[in-house]
Amino acid sequence: MAQHPSKNGPAVPSADMPPAMAEIKSQSVDDVMKEMNRMPLFMTTLDETDGEGGDNDALEALKALAYEGTRAEIAENFRQQGNECARAKQWTDAKEFYDKGIAALKAPKQEPAPEEGPEVIDTTDIKLNQEQEAKKERDIAEACHINRALCNLEKKNYRSCIQDCAATIRLNSSNIKAYYRSGLACLSLDKIPEATDACELGLELEPSNASLKTLQTKIAARMTHLKSVEKSRKEREAKAASERATLALALKSRGIKSRSTNQAPDLEDAVVKLDNVLDPSSTLSFPVLLLYPTHSQSDFIKAFGESETLSQHLEYIFPLPWDERQEFTLKDVEAYMETIAGGLIKMGKKMTLNKVLGSGKCEVVDGLVRINVLPQGKAAGWIEEFKKRRGSN
Questions:
Q1: What is the pTM of this model?
Q2: Where would I find the Cns1/TTC4 wheel domain in this sequence (predicted)?
Q3: Domain identity same for 386 and 297
Q4: CATH classification at residue 150
């Protein structure tokens, strides 16, 4: 026994600390907290080890308890744990517990161990117990499914929510929550007919249910909105189709050929268009790419009117900032366009774009007109190179 001095006299005998307490006293606070965290009762974080890489026997024993008893008892335990998490809005954890509860009800039944002594079987009691157990399992399954439906609804897993509601209704066709949550999930997916059906079936059971009435109003409002959106979409599509038809008529009436490829460039909002999109006789304009092949340069004209000439645009484009030798002047350049046959046609600088395109020799490819502009002194050489490339192809 240890001796401890007294303030006013001789030492007073006291009891020694128990070995376990003495061991704890010798540890740091962090070590004590770490050790306590491995005890299921004091856990703040899940620690499945014994501190040395082995199993936490106390925790494993506690886990095993969750799977002892009948299927209904095991499932009910998981259901209650799921409810606790749901009340705390811990939807993911709650869903996992409901998953386990439903799985437990699908597990094979465990037959009780036979008791010693003469066997006396009362078939009436057995049948009654089986019926009671089956009803208990159905009730727990219904609760797990409808509660898991709530978890899926909160997690925006709408299709899973609908499936859980369907499973609930198969177990109990009078479950109002199943119709309500199914209706909400269907509404979230814009499944309006399905949402309407779920809501109406629920109201047949409880005509005064406030939640279902509110849902019915939301469904009606969403239906009106979707109809309006669909009407606008159809109107836009009809307008676009009419504009395309008018443009096609305008090109055909002018003898202008066009085609599209699978390598169309991104021209953003630059397109072949009419001044009045619904009048084929109004002025056409084209996006035009001016190419300077001898210098690997280019300029882009977003809207080149059909009645305009090349010289009208070159007047404000020239002089070119990179043309150090001043080879590109309005009077010293020539312009060429590729023909449909694969050759070249010389484009007069004072010739309107409509006249060139309307000749039927050239075409508008992918909504873009391409014009090659060259210094007169280099045009012949470029043409020869062009023919050689075409010949080799």
A1: 0.65
A2: 278-386
A3: yes
A4: 1.25.40.10
